[in-house]
Structures are given as structure tokens and as C-alpha cells.
Design brief:
By secondary structure, the chain is an alpha+beta fold. Strands 1-2 form a two-stranded antiparallel ribbon. A hairpin with a 5-residue loop joins β1 and β2.
């Protein structure tokens, strides 16, 4: 139950950052720039966190 709650909390955080968060802006030397929503970075780390929590809690038990 707690692992499921932790995974849901991670993705709810991704949702809130995606809706209310800003954007990461990168400037280059030739005055061009690119903008990436900050939710992309949070989603990347939430995916890693989901995988690690799921592997630890829902993985096979060795005997």
C-alpha cells in the first residue's frame, strides 16, 4: 500500500509541476535559445523513482 502511495505521489507531483511549473531556458553562444518545460525533468526522475520503488517492493522474493 505504501509503495503504491509513493508512486502515485511522484506522478501527482509531475502533474502539478507540468501545470504550474515554469520552463527551463537554455541560451547558446549565437543568441539562440531553447525552452523545455520543467515537467519533463521531473517526469524523468519520477520514472526512475517509480522503477526503483516498484523493483524493491513488487519484485520477486528470493528464497
Amino acid at each position: 500500500m505504501w509503495a503504491t502511495l509513493a508512486i502515485v505521489a511522484m506522478w501527482v507531483a509531475v502533474l502539478f509541476v507540468g501545470v504550474y511549473g515554469g520552463a527551463a531556458t537554455f541560451h547558446s553562444v549565437d543568441t539562440s535559445f531553447s525552452t523545455i518545460p520543467s515537467g519533463v525533468f521531473v517526469a524523468l526522475f519520477a520514472a526512475f523513482g517509480t522503477g526503483s520503488v516498484a523493483k524493491r517492493v513488487f519484485g520477486r522474493k528470493s528464497e
